[in-house]
Amino acid sequence: MSDTEPRYPIEWEADVVLRDGSTAHLRPIEPTDADALQRFHMAQSEQSTYLRFFAPMERLSARDLERFTTVDHHDRVALVVVRRVVDGEEIVGVGRFDRVARDEAEVAFNIADAAQGRGVGSVLLEHLATAAREVGVRRFTADVLPQNGRMIAVFREAGYAVTQHLDDGVVQVSVDLDPTERSREVMADREHRAEARSMQAVLGARSVLVVGPPGPCLQAYAAERVAASLRAAETRHLVVTVTQASDLDVLDEPVELAVVSLAPEIAVDVVPHLENLGVRALVLLSGGYAEAGAQGLALQRDLLRAAHGAGMRVVGPASYGLFVRREDGDLNASLSEELPPAGRVGFFCQSSPMAVTLLATVARRRLGVSSFLSAGNRAGVSGNDLMQYWQDDENTDVVCLYLESIGNPRKFSRIARRLSRVKPVVVVTAGRSGHVVPAGHAVRTTRAPRRTLDEMLRQSGVIRADNTHHLVDIAQLLEHQPLPTGRRVGILASSPALAALVAEAVSSAGLEVAEVSRSLAEDADDETVTAAVDAVYAEGTCDAVVVVHVPTLRPRTGRVASAVARAAARTGRTSVVSMLGLHGLDPELTATSAGVERIVPAYSTPEDAVAALGAVVRYVRWRAQDQGVSVSPPGLRPAAARAVVESALAGPEPVALDERDTHAVLDAYGIDLWETVNVSTVDEAVRAADELGYPVALKHTAESLRHRSDLGAVRLDIQDADELREDFAAMLGAFTDVVPAVAPAPFEIQRMAGKGVACVIRSAEDQLFGPVVSFGLAGDAVDLLADVASGVPPLTDVDVATIVRSVRAAPRLFGYRGAPVSDVAALEDLVARVSVMADDLPELRSLELYPVVVAERGATVLSARLTVAPAHRADTLRRALPA
């Protein structure tokens, strides 16, 4: 690239899912697109051409072609949506803007007639708006003919602030590009519908093509295993052995799903031939891609580009396959020879070994499954896609995910939070922190605290399981028992010792032991068993029941199990049992009442039973509580803050904002930073104090001495000039060795704040999680004990309140030991403003408000440090598949 040639913004490229669930590729236009653009233009109807150019235009002139395809990606930007064709790419949509003022650009779209109604225009608007914000454009304008209802609808339905008026027969539209709550909702809803439909092409396939190599090898064996599974399920399928991609040309029967077990080099070449057969989704069983090194990664990218350009979703590589239990015939395109029973639990995992372990555990428990998918290295389809699908799937009531990595935590949190409100989501992660990156998985590095993942999952309402067994423990309870109505637990045990053990487990799980709890001797007769069971299940006695029956002298009979099953079915009381010899979902614990069959799940140990029950009770409480509304404090001016940040960024390196810019950014978000005056001599200190007004604080500015009142580096409540001179001299003498390092202004003067609780609020932009906002009480609680609560924006008012109250030192804010009650509302408002700022400004690399003094009235920010850097956020306000 020459020095004068504009840089091609490769980061604007994206694979996208359209409204009908098909995929396409979106990228900046290039001069080499001139011929494709001419073909696109000439294929348009006369009406479409007139609506775009306000005049008939059979062909684009050479001058127009050059103008439309040669752009600078800053003042003149154009994006195209393309699909694969036999000899290259075909343009199906063009969106462009031309800057007409510093922060304003004129926008235009042209969508292929054949692609109308598939959401190409809305996708282009999302990506153009994101690109525009990156280059400083904040408003789009457009002239639209009144009869061009589709284009007017694209603007109106996007959720942005839109104004329009008719002038001389033309509708003039103005679109404010600052994201709104409505625009975020629209994007999330469109994303949900498109991705759910795309997964329908994967899981709803009625015809399957299995492609494998000849000869005895693992890839051939995998292909044959899938073919055998399809035969057993009586699914319409074809099996083809290929040595080269052209071997598929003998086929002419359309197929919806392809399962491929080939070497990467051949698999990439196979994609165009699969497109000719109408394939909508591709499952890659074989490996050898990103996990094999740079060459494999390049092949993986080539395959994804080819498949997405051809409208296909990709499952894998290194997938174990997928299966769906259906009344009209199962789809089993997996390596599993036997399927679990049909049921209403959806399972997602990644690697094949974990799939084997998970399915074996499910089978041992006799747990019913609605659908299952192994994403392998999840280069394409991920757990986010499955959650989108399961939200609308009438055959799935419970969602379970084993995640070895999370590629886009912000998107995961957004989708899981919406899904958890209607269906329980149970998650196991590899490790507790999300820092694990298996070979072949595309995961950004993270420096977020290890507890950030815990906070994100809690915020999303998902049920966190410790391991595979715990996952299935919870799933079998959710699927076969009603949700508990409270936290009171009745206990029925076969000995007082067991009853005490269970009671301790119940209390440790945050539940309450009900007074109705009973012990039942192992030699109790039928009448005694019935009386004890009826007493525990009596109306109003408890919200859930734990039954533990472990005979020590005689073999266990089915009397207790049968009585408990009948009582649980009759009362609808949530029940779990731990009985010798029973595990999972056993016919012995099955009963029917009023035509409804219930199975009481059995667990290996009482602790396992209580742990599952406790997890479900916590989920029910989360689901029942007010989820709050997204925080939106008044008086925000994000455009003003963004202008300051953009002006400060001169290159790729992080920049610490100076005092003036720090004040400006905080002021744009309604945060008042108290004035601080840097001084180097005692006379300057006295003059500054006279201007600010006594009492004042004197602070050392050396990094190692910030906030160190314990070392004498902070002197508070200085009442007059004499005291200030004395403290200045003492501090200067004590830290003589430090002063040269921070010259010429080693001290600062600040007006004293009122008495209150000192807190610290921070935000950091993490490559993986995006913005992470944290809160704690200043001092040893944060510095030594890491007593910090975090949240991943966007936050609700409930999230903010939870963050403030989650730290262990929080009682100090609420009148601990007779101290005044702090203005927590003002503190929460401040945390909310920081969270919105962090969400709005991906360039905000770090922020620290320290200390924030929370008094009986008001919260005062005494010091602030902000660092900005070029934005590299993974989850932006545009729809895109994993890169």
Automatic annotation (TrEMBL):
Keyword field contains Nuclease: no
Record keywords, A-Z: ATP-binding, Nucleotide-binding
Domain ATP-grasp span(s) in chain numbering: 663-699
GO molecular function: acyltransferase activity, transferring groups other than amino-acyl groups; ATP binding; metal ion binding
Occurrences of domain N-acetyltransferase (ranges): 24-178
Sequence intervals crossing the membrane: none
Protein name: Acyl-CoA synthetase (NDP forming)
Organism, as annotated: Paraoerskovia marina
